[in-house]
Amino acid sequence: MRGLGVLRREIVGLCGALALTACGSPAPERAPNTINFSILSAESRESAIGDWTPFLDDMAKATGLTVKPFFGSNYTALIEAMRFKQTDVGWFTNQSGLEAVRRAGGEVFARSVNPSGVDGYEAVIIVPKGRGITLERLLACDRSLNFGIGDAKSTSGTLAPMTYLFAPRGIDPNACFKTVRSANHEANLFAVGAGTLDAATNNTASMERLAMLETPLARSTMQRVEIIWRSPRIPEDPMIWRKDLDPQIKAKVADFLFSYGVGDTPEAERQRAILKRIQTLPFVPADETHLIPVREMEATRDLLEAKQRGDGAAIARAQAALDAVRTERAALEAAR
User: Fold this and answer.
1) Rg value, the chain, Cα
2) I need a surface site. Which of 166, 177, 273, 297 has the fewest CB within 10 A?
3) How far apart are the first and last CA of the chain?
4) What counts of helices (H) and strands (E) characterise the chain?
5) Distance (Å, rounded) from C-alpha 95 to C-alpha 196?
6) 10-residue block means of pLDDT along the chain (336 residues)?
7) Please, are residues 291 and 98 in contact by the beta-carbon 8 Å criterion?
8) How far apart are CA 83 and CA 242, in angstroms?
9) SS3 for 92?
């Protein structure tokens, strides 16, 4: 159950997005051969700028396009920016990517590849090490703990823990904890490390990212947190462009993306070092079937919540949606 607190956060995010898009006004005229590239906001804006700028600079050189980064304050802002054609291409989480496809005319064309060799990542719940906060205590729901959750559109920060942990137990985080704070993974990780949060959602990719920094703050933070819950493995994140983007621009972007970091030349090695900073191996092609697992998670969560409410009509709708996506997944697996 998402609860009123999550709903309020979604409304706040939507208001911010509407302000960003000037209340639905048409996107401004754009110079030819220019694309706006949006970056998912699981980390701070400063971290994203440092990690993504070399990649976007290489894209501009290789394609001849002017590539402008777009950093939204939350996932809703990124979805709305694509909806109003203020952005053209972007790296989304699975859930926010699904929203971009449904509401913003987006189309999955690529996905990242986990550099660890194990494709995919896990949502986790972290707590301060040595404080004795176990999963059992977390689920006691005695309103004694301060909890950090992700953006409402975050797959690992919100959807996965709701689907796999809270909803099956009939738990509404807003009624379970003393306070519930929504923030990005980086902020939640540092807050748990500092002891200002008793527990928070995160994911293994974000934690691996922090460990890579090898700064005193990063090292001390990682030493002060521990994982008490892990989700099933979640597919890597999708790259999405607008369906109506100029086909010639699509071709230039695809040619760049699927050749970047490929090969055994010194240049390819340099490019792979840049990709490592954004935690991926060379991107690979993908399509809408990439979103089947997150659709199944979404339908499972909706069914559980409908059953908890005893809403017969909602149960029927959610069960039909879940059956449909499972049939689609089975057909895809059989074809493979």
Assistant:
1) 20
2) 273
3) 35
4) 14, 11
5) 28
6) 35 38 43 86 68 95 96 87 96 93 97 87 96 96 96 91 93 94 92 97 90 84 96 94 96 98 97 93 96 93 90 94 92 86
7) yes
8) 9
9) coil
